[in-house]
Amino acid sequence: MPRIRLGNWAEDVVSWLTRHFSWLFDAVSSVVNHLYDGVEWVLGGPSPLLMAGILAALAFWMRGLPTALAAFAGFALIDGVAQWDQAMQSLSLVVVSAAVALLLAVPLGVWAARSRVASALVRPVLDVMQTLPAFVYLIPAIIFFSLGTVPAVIATIVFAMPVGVRMTELGIRQVDPELVEAADAFGTAPARTLLRVQLPLALPTIMAGVNQVIMLALSMVVIGGMVGAEGLGSTVFGAISQVDIGLGFEGGVSVVVLAVYLDRITGAMGEQVSALGRRTAARARTGGRLRGFAVLRYRPRPAVGLSCVVALALVAAGTGVFGGDGQPSAPVAAGSDVGKGRTVTIGSFNWDESIASANLWKAALDARGFKAAVKTYDPGAAFTGLARGDIDVLTDAWLPTTHAAYLKQYGKDYTDLGKWYERTSLEVAVPSYVKGVTTMADLKGRSKEFGGRIVGIEPGAGEMGLLKDKVLPGYGLDKDYRLVSSSTSGMLAELARDYAARKPVAVVLWSPHWAYSTYHLTKLSDPKSLWGPGDSIHDLANKASAARLPEVSSWMRGFHMTEPQLGSLEAAIQAAGQGNTAQGVRQWVAAHPGVLDTMAPVGAGG
Amino acid sequence: MSKLVAEHVFKVFGRRPKEGVRRIQAGTDRDELRAEGTTAAVIDASFEVQQGEIFVVMGLSGSGKSTLLRTLNGLAQPTSGRVLFDGRDVSSLAAKDLRHLRSHRISMVFQHFALFPHRSVLDNAGYGLEVQGLPRQEREERAAQALELVGLAGWERSWPDELSGGMQQRVGLARALATDADLLLMDESFSALDPLIRRDMQDQLLTLQQRLRKTIVFITHDLNEAMRLGDRIAVMRDGRIVQIGTAQDILVDPASDYVASFVQDVDRSRVLTAASIMQKPPVAVDLSDPQCVTAHTDTPLAELLTPASRTRQPLAVVDDEGRLSGVIARDTLLAALGDQPVKEAHRA
Ligand SMILES: Nc1ncnc2c1ncn2[C@@H]1O[C@H](COP(=O)(O)OP(=O)(O)OP(=O)(O)O)[C@@H](O)[C@H]1O
Ligand SMILES: [Mg+2]
Predict the structure, then answer these.
(1) For a 10 Å CB count at each end of chain A, is N or C smaller?
(2) CATH of the domain at B239
């Protein structure tokens, strides 16, 4: 069987599309961005409690008092765990994705219901859309649409749309053929039959589809967080990467509140919008169990409900809480305004030294009159974004080994600004309570204790390949140990678990890493030097950005950090706590006078 | 001119319908075709329906009644042959003209009522008028009139699922009547109703028909219903019309053993009239003889039994003018009420 180069073809198609259709992708990108910004402006504008009130009023209108109270409590909880902005961003993402998905799904479903051929064509495409793992198209989506909201919206649409198409098709096909024939027999034109008979009768099913689309869209929020979409997804994703169970839980609960709210509201909408649904609901109510609790059953009539919502929205607008201006930026010292407001996007991943260096550079660049922003991504997304220019600089490229694959792929779009940190190392680590294991060679013969496995990270990581192909065979361990691939957060969670139970465990790790300060771990030494000399950490810039920001490039070229410096910075950030990174950096900078002038000397960069 | 004419209508389902028609014409058996996946639902159907007539098509399930009916308003295109409505070929009409024909001239009543569950009773009755494009007020007035006609005044604001089956079918009838169409197609319209309600509906249809004089094609598989309603009846078997005639024709002179066995369960005492079984008077009958009992030609046999029991002589049958038309001997009467077709009883 010859190797079929399916993957190569896919790559060729992607790059061909990028070359010839960038105008189209840019247009789509801009439309989706505007939609999202608009919705986010409306939802995220009012103060949290007011917006919670508006959402509760909507629930009151749709379903009555109990739901309204529960909704208000739920949203207050979201605000209470400081996830309000993220929740509204996620809600906006869901609203935009679901709206676009439905705009595409309903006509497609109608088409499929009316034509056997269309149905046969559409079905396999839907199957692929629903089952293809999101990550497979996320990276191309980033290449086409750049990092941030748009690829998240696209991925969500791809995932959520099929059920909308299917339910629409099903709903229309389910309509009693005798009714369609009756419409026909009275001389109804086909389009009118669709609008006046088939769609109204299919509406309950279609609305069930709408509900499903929205729920699926919400389930994609976390994946959206990995490609840089703001919202609960990035909270949860960030929490997972740092094994911050508390924050992950808070983010997760917020997602659940949104989910339950959206489910109830769209469920009720299914009853409200169709005459058929209203009939069923009315019949159910007359025989309902809540007889006698009039307050619980009371629902305002549409006019009343709508005016409730509108009135609250007007109050919101009146109190001027729409579109707050954000905090005033810190004053820039006279004579040091090199940036003149130019923006710099610094990419980072949820690796400690990445967060530390990116935020340190943000502090330095802001002090020099730039508008710097740190955006956190999954590494693959970050390197793709850097190649596209969505990110100007990336401060955490491990070269020549760990991130070699990205350099090979996108190297021509990067400018290497040189290394700023020398002695990284790759290693296998074990808890210090495992006695008698200090070198790789010591693992030999003790595979039973470790369950015959070494817990690894992402299978694509350079370190994994090196360990599997060189290090393990080199120490004769490849027969005794299985290298289990998982993810960085998976590996850390496994380490935390086994550490708490004081069980022997061997994990793939690297330095610098916060795990060494959190746990007592032994780095297994490498007497045969099979791991190689170790990586340095480089600053990379997008080629065009490097030209646009010559001062920044030259400052970064001159940048260096020692292990104690980096360690103390990471500690300062850790001490400041989640969400206070900037404050931690400020404290560290204050404790190291002159560090900003060393990093970004005024005049030297031009 | 006949209101509605079907000329050699064929309807064949399958992959090559035209070829199916040719093979049937060449003598291929219907079952043989079916084995190949081709269904000849209607085979060479020809008939004429007069203005104001109730024409019943009767046959067992699968005999092709519905398919035949659907060719009449173009819901199904005949594979071969044509249907003329007021002299116009229905199957050659453009889609738009066909829709106009259906919304203005031909309406339909369905077996399972086919009311739109998302519309009120009034809006259901006014559906055809809405398609015609009438303004709301006029539409509602006329729909309300149609509902009144079928005895549903006061139910306008209800929903179809709040009505009993009989009432729902009245709405279906009102919907068909509201458009003022002159041809009504009714496909087993009363079959889904309880026997008592069904009888009610039949009576109501007959009463309405006396006032409205529509042309009606009525499908049923119930022979008694066919006999009650039909001015003329077409009996279908395996896609073919095997006999067309009045109820009497079919009872008295069945075209085949199939029809004969089909009609054997009919309550013939109510369908057959004195005229259908009377014989030539063998000798002159003295109508003034007090012993002589007379009956009118249109009297059903059931009503001859009591008079016949009062005399030993044959009954004298008289026409509208009171002139002697024929006589019925007792044994003839009894034989006619028996299982055997009447023709054989004559010969006996
Ligand atoms: N659209 C179609 N495609 C294929 N075959 C069909 C189609 N419509 C009807 N037939 C076949 O044509 C034959 C006659 O069907 P039709 O519905 O006209 O019978 P019917 O006399 O109305 O029966 P019933 O009393 O059950 O309603 C049946 O064998 C049926 O399977
Ligand atoms: Mg039928």
Answers:
(1) N
(2) 3.40.50.300
pLDDT at res. A567: 80
The ipTM of this complex is: 0.82
Which ranges constitute the DSSP H helices of A45-133? 48-63, 65-80, 84-114, 116-131
Asked if B131's CB is within 8 angstroms of A185's CB, the reply is no
- Whether the per-residue pLDDT at A606 is higher than 60: the answer is no
Bridge partners of A510? A426
Q: Pick the closest to residue A161 from A220, A203, A120, A113 (CA basis).
A: A220
Q: Under a CB-based contact definition with an 8 Å cutoff, are residues A147 and A26 in contact? A: no
Look over chain A and give the mean of its residue pLDDT values, rounded to a whole number: 83
Tokens 């690297």 belong to residue: A510
Q: Write down the domain spans for chain A.
A: 95-229, 274-321, 343-422+536-599, 425-523
User: Residues B15-54: pLDDT tens digits?
Assistant: 889 988 999 888 888 888 888 889 999 999 999 999 999 9
Residue B109 and residue B188 in contact, taking contact as beta carbons nearer than 8 Å: no
Q: Is residue B297 part of a domain?
A: yes
Topology agreement, domain A343-422+536-599 and domain A425-523: yes
- Domain count within chain B: 2
The CA dihedral of A169, A170, A174, A180, to the nearest 10 degrees, is 0
Supply the DSSP symbol for A468: I
Flag whether residue A136 sits within 8 Å of chain B, measured between CB atoms: no
Q: Is the pLDDT of residue A294 over 60?
A: no
Which one is the CATH code of A425-523: 3.80.10.10, 1.10.357.10, 3.40.190.10, 3.40.190.100? 3.40.190.100
Looking at the structure, tell me whether residues B185 and B322 fall in a common domain: no
In terms of Cα–Cα distance, which of A147, A151, A143, A152 is closest to A21?
A: A143
Report whether pLDDT(A429) > 90: yes
B159, closest residue in chain A (CA to CA): A279
Residue A197 forms contact with B (CB below 8 Å): yes
Minimum CA distance residue for ligand 1 atom 3: B13
